[in-house]
């Protein structure tokens, strides 16, 4: 369950004529603190794609530079404080952006796993290379055979996996994972929400 869903569920289930209860406010605060921690732990390029007010962005970026445990803890509290100043639209915009980024990450992971499976098959049996060359006749068969042979020798001799890694890169180029990743990233960028302006309220 995403943080914004938790936030909304709490609000709808516990809201009364007298306003939110103390326990509701506490849970909302924890949910926003968790959301702030997600922002702090994002990769730099992913963080740049999340819409947020300048004061929150500055607090998050400052927190990422702090390595001392106590200093980072205090800064995380400040990030949480900034999160609690956001309205519901702003929180939803951040959560939607995070959902898109996580989806892209899952897609990238799946593609990398597919490449790893191909490499394992190529090293395990010669028939796999025949299958690969049938599917991709433009591939450099001699280069692949050399890399496979050298990677097998590396494994047998427990040497550094130079050919093993080169084989992965050749497969990545051959199977078009790099370009596919870019397309996925571009599509994800198009799905990112616009940050709501005050005129939208």
Secondary structure layout plus pairing:
Elements: H1 3-14, H2 22-41, H3 44-47, H4 54-65, H5 69-83, H6 88-124, H7 127-135, H8 141-157, H9 162-174, H10 177-191
Structure description:
The structure is a single chain. The chain is an all-alpha fold and 201 residues long. Helix content is 77%, strand content 0%. Among the domains are: 25-86, PSPTO4464-like domains (Diphtheria Toxin Repressor, domain 2), CATH 1.10.60; 108-177, Orthogonal Bundle (Diphtheria Toxin Repressor, domain 2), CATH 1.10.60. The longest helix is centred in the middle third of the chain and has 37 residues, at 88-124. It is elongated, with a radius of gyration of 24 Å. The protein starts with a helix and ends in a 10-residue tail after the last helix.
CATH fold description of the domain at 108-177: Diphtheria Toxin Repressor, domain 2
User: What is the residue-mean pLDDT, rounded to a whole number?
Assistant: 81
Described by the principal axes of the CA atoms, the overall outline is elongated
In angstroms, what separates the terminal alpha carbons?
27 Å
Structural class: mainly alpha
CATH H-level superfamily title of the domain at 108-177: PSPTO4464-like domains
Q: What is the share of helical residues?
A: over 70%
User: What's the CATH class of the domain at 108-177, please?
Assistant: Mainly Alpha
Strand content: under 5%
Tell me how many strands there are: 0
Compute the CA-based radius of gyration.
Answer: 24 Å
List keywords for this structure.
Diphtheria Toxin Repressor, domain 2; 10 helices; mainly alpha; 201 residues; disordered C terminus
